[in-house]
Please model this.
Amino acid sequence: MRQIVMTAPGKIELRQIERPEPLPHEVLIEIKRIGVCGSDIHVYHGLHPYTRYPIVQGHEVSGLIAEIGRDVAGLQVGESVVFMPQVTCGTCYPCRNGMEHICNQLKVMGFQTDGAAQEYFSVPADHVLKIPSSISLDHAAMVEPIAVAVHALARSGDVRGKKVVILGAGTIGNLVAQAARALGASKVLITDISEYKLELARACGIPLVVNTMHINLGEEIIKELGSDQADVILECVGSQETISQAIEFARKGSVIIVVGVFGKKPCVDLGLVQDRELTLIGTLMYQKRDYERAIQLMGQGLLNLDGMITHRFPFAAYAEAYQAIDESKGKYLKVMIEL
Ligand SMILES: [Zn+2]
Ligand SMILES: [Zn+2]
Model:
């Protein structure tokens, strides 16, 4: 079978390997879609601090069950599935307390251990979730980033009836905004400095979009959300500027969720966090219940995902997909690889 390997930053090779056999507790999945995400591109550019080369990427994936290990029950060949790409130790404090997603030894397939950029991929059955037949393989491949969004929102508690501001309209910011609406937020406002990404957000049904290059965010929040401002602010960029905005434009008692991954250590005004009794909360990946919730929201037709897929490439053109991303100069959102 074919497999794609990133041998070094910027170097992508197609190679032939043996098709894997599932272990007794595993399921062999025929991979059908692989979404490329921002972290994959960081690996491609040699800018991901926690990865190794060679690495097989692929963690936003959907496929069909091809074979079932002998100890696996409840799954059938031919079923549409997704899987959670986390590899955890099972013995550390977070693992023993229901927080495997922040395992002390956490490895993520596609980064610290090989991912699913291959025709068949074997994963433990307890990481696999079934997808209803009404959900397309394209959409199923987006369950992973939707679960990131759902988990981030869940970290603030219930968003029903709340006013939510999302800083950053990339894939995750867009999905956080869409999920916030689907989960019943009363108002959702999204910002970016890219008119292209804001247009996509608008096309996905998010009415309040603000380009912070041209518009003062503090004034806009009061204009659109009212003088009570935002209950929850989600920073989905990982930059000095946006985390500073989150703290500056929070009202007293707001909750700030830190979703973005910071390449550089930001310098923030903790004086405001203290004085305004802000709550600053981190979020990393997701738990099984977030995957289940993501699949549920998708099944209810509450998310506009087609509008987010801006590029498609066949598996054999994996390298071209990354070249196109580089050449697009930021004008892409979800890039989908098809098998
Ligand atoms: Zn991803
Ligand atoms: Zn652990």
